[in-house]
Amino acid sequence: MNEYKELTWQGLWENNPALVQLLGLCPLLAVTSTVTNALGLGLATLLVLVGSNVTVSLVRDYVPKEIRIPIFVMVIATFVTMIQLLLKAYLFSLDQALGIFIPLIVTNCAIIGRAEAYASKNPWRQSAFDGVMMGLGFTLVLVLLGAIREVLGNGTLFSGAELLLGDWAQSLSLTLFAVEHPLLVAILPPGAFIVMGFIIAAKNKIDAVRQARAVKPEKTVTRARVTAQ
Amino acid sequence: MTFKLAASPHTHQKRSTQQVMRWVYLCMIPGIILHHYFFGAGVWLQMLLALIVGLSAEAIAVKLRGRSIRTVWRDHTTVVTALLLAVSIPSLAPWWVISIGMIFAIVVVKQVYGGVGQNLFNPAMAGYVVLLISFPVQMSSWPLATELAQQRVDLSTAASLIFSGYTPAGYSLEQLRMGVDGLTMATPLDALRNGLTAQFTTPEIFASQAIFGAVGGIGWGWLNLAWLAGGLILVQQRIISWHIPVGVLLGLAVPAAIFQLFNPDTSIPVSIHLLSGATMLGAFFIATDPVSAATSNRGRLWFGLLIGVLVFIIRSFGGYPDGMAFAVLLANMCVPIIDKYTQPIAYGHGGKS
Fold it and tell me: What are the φ/ψ torsions at residue B85 (nearest 5 degrees)?
């Protein structure tokens, strides 16, 4: 069980694909202008990651080392195509909103990175779990980034959630404040880079504080003064 | 007996950063006074707001970084950033516009990179660009030059407009910007851009818009001359070297002159290029920022030329009427490569072997 705990910790925090490995930044920065888009892309990436990790792990003994990367890419592309067809069939408006970034999941280095670094060396159960955790870590960062940008640029949260979750989700859409003059830069690509920088800085700060706390302060010896001044 | 050993360099810069910055804002005075004369008293409030917000934001950022606030405040670079941003934005823009701009300029562009001397980009212009792409309406609502406006904007009117959006008499900024014919008037560069896009010729635009009553447009021409005067004092005092301003003006004027020569009806005239918009302010006060500009004299000339050409390209073919801020930021990005290829040869090195 300890192995799974370690995988969880690695995927969600210590080795988070978006915050630490800085992989897959292209979709991360491009589609996170709203929480809905971010969540949609995050879940799609998660599904592809789990699928590709399991497949790569199952075929790892039969793949010649020399051509492993093209084979991994083929596997990933297959899963991406499946996800895209599913999206087109059941969540068409979300597919329209995400556009080119669904097919571009193929080129997401976070996925091929996991296939190469973990799935090709480990049994399929651990690989599947690793895929879930890495995917969740990626999704969480996407959603956080999307939330910050949506609030700053639009004053709303979960606007358009019905595209992803069905009609009941219309009630999820929150308007935190009505903005007369939205801070457009938060919605535009530069805003994504700036907010991303601040999130990474916050993560590093938390790590630094944890580290400082983990180092136990040495016991200071207090001596009682016995002589008079 | 002890001998005092001093490390090289043994010649000393005559002025501290604070003195340099003080010269810069002293030389801005003629421009600011004309700004007040043509566009009303709003500029004083904008400067005050920019100073308060900028210095407070810097104090907080410096405190978070664990440095001494007093030493950071003492170099006066934030004062110059605040004044430059305040004169760059429309003088009756709402209070939150300049506040957001200053917070971004000081915290994100300056302190995050490590404070004065470390910033990659010109803080005032980076703040300006964030405002321009975030609030295009507020950032293009320049008040009318006094000669064209129906009412003068005094200090109380300006305060009321900046903080509430309306004058005490209940006019909105939009209404104030109308000329006698009830049409909102644009800045000269705006008018030219819109006119040329709508297939009018340059002389037609000149004849149809009252703003072109003087060289460079009413107000804008004199304002640019005032910045030029202040800038010349800076050059004369050796606060800035002549390379960057000359580069900017050449880079802008030469392509403009070529286009005017061959296409007088569909291009912006050289006089408008040089004496309108942010040309002189940019050439002498903004591009010459000692931190984010190139460092060698030859490099400065190239840096200036690059800015000038970029301004010309953006004004003639780009999506914005003026491009000084974008040009400065783009040139800032090119500084490392400019510095690499224009590094002066040290004495005793190089030459024919």
Answer: -65, -40
Q: Confirm or reject contact between B164 and chain A (CB < 8 A).
A: no
What single DSSP character describes residue B145? Answer: P
Decide if A181 and B135 are in contact by the 8 Å CB cutoff. yes
Total structural domains within chain A: 1
Structure-derived torsion over alpha carbons of residues B184, B189, B191, B193, reported in degrees to the nearest 10: -140
Rounded CA gap, B80 and B249, in Å? 22
Q: Judge if ipTM > 0.90.
A: no
Q: State which residues of chain B have pLDDT below 70.
A: 1, 12-13, 147, 149-151, 178-185, 213-214, 351-353
In whole angstroms, what is the distance from residue A188 CA to residue A149 CA? 9
Domain-located, residue A108: yes
B63 phi and psi, to 5 degrees?
Answer: -65, -45
Best probe of the B interface among A185, A193, A199, by most B CBs < 10 A, is A185
Mutation target vs A (from B134, B164, B172; most A CBs, 10 A cutoff): B134
Domain that residue A190 falls in = 2-8+22-214
End-to-end CA distance of chain B: 47
Contact A183 B100 (CB under 8 A): yes
Report how many helices (DSSP H) and strands (DSSP E) chain B contains, helices first. Answer: 18, 0
Percent of chain A with pLDDT over 70: 90
On whether the CB atoms of residues B296 and B346 are closer than 8 A, the answer is no
Q: Is residue A16 part of a domain?
A: no
DSSP B61-85: HHHHTT--HHHHHHT-HHHHHHHHH
Q: What pLDDT digit, counting tens, does each position of B160-192 carry?
A: 888 888 888 777 777 777 666 656 667 888 888
pLDDT at A178: 67
Dist. CA A154–CA A180, nearest whole Å: 9
- Residue-wise pLDDT for A100-142, tens only, equals 888 888 888 888 988 988 999 999 999 999 999 999 999 999 9
Cβ–Cβ < 8 Å for B81, B88: no
Q: Does B134 touch chain A (CB under 8 A)?
A: yes
Q: To the nearest whole angstrom, how far is the Cα of A184 from the nearest Cα of chain B?
A: 4
Nearest Cα of chain B lies from the Cα of A194 at a distance, in angstroms, of: 9
| A188–B130 C-beta distance less than 8 A | no
Q: Does residue A221 sit within a domain?
A: no
Task: Give tens-digit pLDDT for B213-235.
Answer: 667 778 888 899 999 999 999 99
> Which tens digit of pLDDT belongs to each residue from A40-93?
889 999 999 999 999 999 998 999 989 999 999 999 999 999 999 998 998 888
Q: Which of B108, B135, B136 sits opposite A194 (nearest CB)?
A: B108
pLDDT for the residue numbered A174: 73
Residue A220 lies in a domain: no
